[in-house]
Give the backbone structure.
Amino acid sequence: MDVRPPGLNASRAAGRLGVSTKALRLYEQHGLVTPSRTSSGYRIYSPEQMRRAERIVTLRALGLSLAQVAGVLDGDSRSLADALAAHEATLEDELRQQARRIDKVRALRAELASGRMPDEVALTDALARTALPAVSFALPWPWGGEPFELADIRPLNYLIGPLGSGKTRLARRIAEAIPGAVFLGLDRLQNHDAAAVMPALHPKVERALAWLIGEGATHSDALVTLLAGLETEGATAIVVDMVEQGLDHPTQEALGSYLRQRAATSAPPLFLMTRSSALLDLTLVGAYEAIVLCPANHSPPVRVAPYPGAPGYEAVLTCLASPEVRARTAGMIAWRPESPADALQRS
């Protein structure tokens, strides 16, 4: 007979809290909650544990890392003060962006009042939002120049595909097609001396680095360089080739959490090429995220919904791998025949 202490099982507790059961397990792994167990080993959350979990969820919603949450729960007000200061800085940055847009709209109204009609560029600039409009372009080889439209661009976009599917070429083409976009290639660490810029890190990079380390990430030049690239001044979008390059498993998991929180801000959209199941957890994909699959047969890239049974879902699953598997295949480049364009460039 299964002896069940009073409380909610993991599924009902997660539903009540508005989080996933995986999030609850993560809180337990970090010692933030300690559910009771039935005689059969199932987790049960008592009313006291639920109140503690509710506080954890609230602190996480404020942007606190797991380490910061632990500090607040232990009575350390500094962690909460630092997190609130960072949250305030983010809100102030968003307000400044909104204020600039308001100034542009007022200027346009003044032009109209004086009898001048604003040009189309000024109107577009004043009304532009963080979200990018649809982008149309010709697909690169191996697709052969087929027309393609990238519509409904989300704050966080994943580019997925097997080796040799053309996803790197697609990533570069996206960066070329979006005015003001920045491409962070695999040479980003070689072209950037992370140690030299550490004393002059942008405040946003410093805050992100501290948050990630508090979440369990490992400090590394690869992480610092990536964060610095994500804060490129004036970029309208950031396209990253193999975002997990040089990052260990805990860092990839922490980075996934950070990027999902970043997606809810006014930061420029991200296009992340990845094959890491730690970074792209299909059970956590939300409304701010989109998945673009480059099929193995070189048919045009397609959007894939993150639900079992959705067209392309199984193909995405086969492309994702754990960090351990990714480490074994690091540096591998799929062989491909030379394209006519490559031959022309070489001649």
